[in-house]
């Protein structure tokens, strides 16, 4: 099987890769295979093998919303980071590959005087991961700008889908439940003024640097926003600001972030997440739901 993947991907098929090198939390043990297809054809061929051999697999974008277990992943990780890594535009439509970084797309939009994607400039994810998560910030989210996506479906077919078919909701879509892989997407933006777009991007990046613990590894906001509350405020009010468990901590700067403070294990982070949930529920009767995907 290794030979099959190697013959398709060459150097882009790795064995025993540590997932901590591919997640922004910087935790995670070895996986059996770490595949980085560059073309759709390579991805399709790899998926054929995976399905034929009934192998366990998981898709990675930039790993900025994933907590990987230190015991590793007994299967195939497919990184989409280099998949279709191109960005082009036609009028107000931008088409980009799933692996394109949100920062690159927002820069591209700015360079072409297209507005509407500034919200995503500081989210350290890929386009594919952002669509799956319906990522959002500062009153913007992917559902506001997403027009169509190109997917590889469970039966091996490739097709374009309308954004309206994805059931995009707060930090969710139906893509994973349908076992689909995002290959590329089209965004619909608006014409704007380059200088204004640039100023907005700078402002949003400043706000992030000021408010978020970007100096520590994390996966961003650990919890979804519970209806009617803010997770960070509940955690702060529960007295958990800066609370540490092993190498994991609730950020001093932003209580909504669990951070890898000092060589945390995945168990440290999971235990801390559980502790935060338990205390917040006990004190306020609010159930926090994890935004971070655990594998
Ligand atoms: C410092 C920091 C700040 C953050 N700020 C924000 C924020 O403001 N708003 C926000 O919403 N999020 C934020 N995040 C979380 C994260 O960046 C987003 O959820 C991002 O969209 C995830 O993209 P990714 O490429 O890293 O996806 P990953 O973390 O690699 O994957 C996320 C999920 O998508 C799936 N997936 C990824 N790519 C594909 C694909 N091509 N096809 C099918 N499935 C795929 C994975 O299987 C996984 O279930 C932040 C994270 C960090 C570390």
Give an overview in words.
The protein is 29% helix and 23% strand. It has 3 domains: 2-79, Uridine Diphospho-n-acetylenolpyruvylglucosamine Reductase, domain 2 (2-Layer Sandwich); 87-210, 2-Layer Sandwich (Uridine Diphospho-n-acetylenolpyruvylglucosamine Reductase, domain 3), CATH 3.30.465.10; 231-294, UDP-N-acetylenolpyruvoylglucosamine reductase, C-terminal domain (Uridine Diphospho-n-acetylenolpyruvylglucosamine Reductase, domain 1), CATH 3.90.78. It is an alpha+beta fold and 295 residues long. The protein has helices at 2-9, 40-52, 102-111, 127-133, 142-145, 194-211, 231-237, 266-284, and strands at residues 13-15, 31-35, 57-60, 66-67, 73-79, 87-90, 93-97, 114-115, 136-137, 140-141, 146-152, 158-162, 181-188, 190-191, 244-245, 248-250, 258-260, 293-294. The two termini are 23 Å apart. The radius of gyration is 19 Å and the shape is globular. The protein has a 5-stranded antiparallel beta sheet with strand order 6-7-13-11-12. A 4-stranded mixed beta sheet has the order 1-2-5-3. The chain has a 3-stranded antiparallel beta sheet with strand order 15-16-17, with helices on one face. The protein contains 8 helices and 18 strands. A hairpin with a 2-residue loop joins strand 6 (87-90) and strand 7. The structure holds flavin-adenine dinucleotide. Flavin-adenine dinucleotide binds next to strand 3, helix 4, strand 9 and strand 13.
Compact overview of the structure:
It contains eight helices and 18 strands.
Structural class call reads alpha+beta
* Number of DSSP-assigned strands: 18
Whole-number radius of gyration?
19 Å
Task: Provide the domain count.
Answer: 3
The global form is globular
Q: Which whole number gives the mean pLDDT?
A: 96
Helical content class: 25-40%
Q: Which spans have pLDDT < 50 for at least 5 consecutive residues? A: none
The major pleated sheet works out as:
5 strands, antiparallel
CATH topology of the largest domain: Uridine Diphospho-n-acetylenolpyruvylglucosamine Reductase, domain 3
What's the CATH architecture of the largest domain?
2-Layer Sandwich
User: Quick one: CATH class of the largest domain?
Assistant: Alpha Beta
User: Count of helices?
Assistant: 8
The molecules bound to the chains, other than polymers, are: flavin-adenine dinucleotide
N to C succession of SSEs: HEEHEEEEEHEHEEHEEEEHHEEEHE
Strand arrangement, major sheet:
6-7-13-11-12
In terms of DSSP E residues, the strand content is: 15-25%
- Cα separation of the termini: 23 Å
């Amino acid at each position: 099987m290794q030979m099959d993947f190697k013959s398709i991907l060459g150097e882009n098929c790795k064995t025993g890769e540590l997932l901590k090198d591919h997640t922004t939390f910087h935790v995670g043990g070895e996986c059996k295979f770490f595949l980085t297809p560059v073309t759709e054809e390579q991805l399709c061929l790899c998926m054929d093998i995976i399905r034929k051999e009934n192998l366990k697999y998981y898709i990675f974008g930039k790993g900025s919303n994933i907590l990987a277990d230190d015991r590793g992943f007994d299967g195939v990780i497919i990184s989409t980071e280099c998949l279709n890594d191109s960005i082009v535009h036609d009028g107000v439509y931008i088409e980009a590959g799933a692996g394109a970084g949100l920062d690159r797309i927002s820069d591209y939009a700015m360079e072409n005087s297209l507005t509407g994607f500034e919200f995503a400039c500081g989210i350290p994810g890929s386009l594919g991961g952002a669509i799956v998560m319906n990522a959002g910030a500062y009153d913007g989210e992917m559902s506001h700008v997403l027009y169509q996506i190109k997917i590889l479906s469970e039966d091996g077919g490739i097709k374009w889908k309308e954004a309206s078919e994805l059931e995009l909701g707060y930090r969710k879509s139906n893509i994973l439940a349908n076992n689909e892989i995002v290959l590329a997407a089209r965004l619909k933006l608006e014409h704007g003024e380059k200088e204004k777009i640039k100023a907005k991007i700078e402002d949003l990046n400043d706000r992030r640097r000021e408010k978020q613990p970007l100096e520590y590894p994390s996966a961003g906001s650990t919890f979804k926003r519970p209806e009617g509350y803010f997770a960070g405020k509940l955690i702060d009010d529960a007295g958990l600001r800066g609370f540490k468990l092993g190498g994991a901590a609730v950020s001093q700067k932003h209580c909504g972030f669990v951070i890898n403070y000092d060589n945390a294990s995945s168990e440290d982070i999971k235990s801390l997440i559980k502790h935060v949930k338990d205390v917040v529920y006990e004190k306020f009767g609010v159930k926090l739901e994890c935004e971070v995907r655990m594998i």
